[in-house]
Amino acid sequence: xxxxxPDVHVRSAPAGTRWxxxxxxxxxxxxxxPEQEEALRSLHTLMLRASHHQVRRMRSALHDLGEDRIxxxxxxxxxDAMMAVLAKLPTFxxxxxxxxxxxxxxxxxxxxxxRQYEWQHRDVELDDAVPQVASAPSPDDLAEAGDLASAxxxxxxxxxxxxxxxxxxxxLVDEVPIDxxxxxxxxxxxxxxxxxxxxxxxxxxxxxxxxHLPAVGPGRP
Length: 221
Fold this sequence. Notes:
two-stranded antiparallel ribbon; Arc Repressor Mutant, subunit A; mainly alpha; 8 helices; elongated
């Protein structure tokens, strides 16, 4: 397998190969030359080891997936994790071991790959209709909660755009993973985060105006 990317061309080591880890990963990965090549191979080996371990920990979610496809999934996650590490290399602050920091990228990419697999044959309803809230029971505490829920639904209908409603319902109500939704909508995670952030701001402002939430005072988050 060959891993390719911007300014990166790494050929994977044979199975079982363990490359020596550099004393200073950031410097070794940043400066072109033989040391960078070794560092890239070491990083790829680390990402492969981490991804295969993590995917097998999540195997219960891949119950109908064959062994070959599981291995392929782990390899793909390792490649994506390595590219993410290299892209984020300037942000490493040395607060933990580099390998510990890099390992988190493999965990994230594995989780993303498994979520995408779980959702690949599931329908994602992209309707901008707001879910109906059942009437609350009579006790005062439940009545107050029901009133707030109704106010939220009303605010969603009147202050959010159809796109904001679709994204909000999919992410917060239907619990669609954000990477899956981004893929279905042909957009990015960051764009969806921005849409959700704007929707929450609009909803809060409306709920404050209607008296359902307290206004945020100066100096308070």
